[in-house]
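Two entries, shown back to back:
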Amino acid sequence: MKYVERVLQPGETVVYATSLHWLIYLKAILLLIVALLCLIAAASFTEPIVVIALKVGAALFGVLGLVSVVSALIQRATTELAVTDRRVIYKTGIFQRHTMEMNRSKVETVGVDQSILGRLLDYGTVIVRGTGGSFEPIRYIGEPLTFRSHITAG
């Protein structure tokens, strides 16, 4: 949590910190499963053109899966979500940093959107609305109700 620690004001402490849910890896997992299925299917065929097509498909899905894994790893590693005793802090990005901070005293409402799958796996979208503006929706937050509770508890 490098960014949050760097921007803490004197006497300010982190009350709660969370990260993105593991579900951001779902696209990568599905692509890699399709690649594996293509390889398995290629082993069961004897016709060379079909085997080559399935192996090319497996390679394509495998590369897309690996790119998706790397993208999700970077996204999860570079996103910081924290509630301090004074502010709500959201930061994402490596080279192009995007940050949003809001004083907790200026927070009017905190909305949590969860689908059925989100409720089962405990992830969702949090929207913090404050006086004079609002945070953009923060998607795929792990334990969004706990995050909301720490924001509204102050």
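entry 2 starts here
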Amino acid sequence: MSEQRIAMVTGGARGIGAAIADALERDGHKVVIVDVDEAKLAEVSQATGRPGYRMDISDFDDVTEVVGRIESEVGPISILVNNAGITRDGFMHKMKPENWQAVINVNLTGAFNTCRVIAPGMRERGHGRIINISSMNGQRGQFGQCNYAAAKAGLLGFTRSIAQELAGKGVTSNVVCPGFIKTDMTAAMPEDILKAEQAKIPVGRLGEPTDIADMVAFLARDETSFINGVTFSVNGGQYMD
């Protein structure tokens, strides 16, 4: 790496986001974590020394204000990892409109908001890495997750589009699609369903947050400047496209 970069990881206080922050830090980057969970954010910031900022990525004005503070207090953001996401599962024919909209607002519009605010600075400086975290379920769909699958599928098209728009200014955009990873989200699943899903994974295990984090760290490096607009499936071979 030619110089230390400043990376912002959304949903960086736990799970995959925390593992991504660890991996980027090991690569020598200065990592800023943002999250809506103020208590967890404060706990992790104190434990790791990473700057932590409360940010509601679904609120464009909040993203604008908080990014302004980060870039004033820490420095310009060169690496953006859109990891934050929520679920509001349910059958489509019974889903409350507010549960549809909440997932779209965070998982898809949130990525637009952060990119819209941060990308102009990346373009001006001639360097940037945008890494969006989608999902295997955005590639294949999932029973009871039409809102989540739609938002994560939207990230695929969004990433490919901005990859074309920004690359001429030294900004690459790629997307990582995790499969079943050991997180709080999967821990809340019924054990029989989780075991059934694990049995479908050719490598014979659930993924670890570090499996995703290592891919993100790779894509954030200066040496990956010719990788752009690509979807990386990290799912143990459970879904091959």
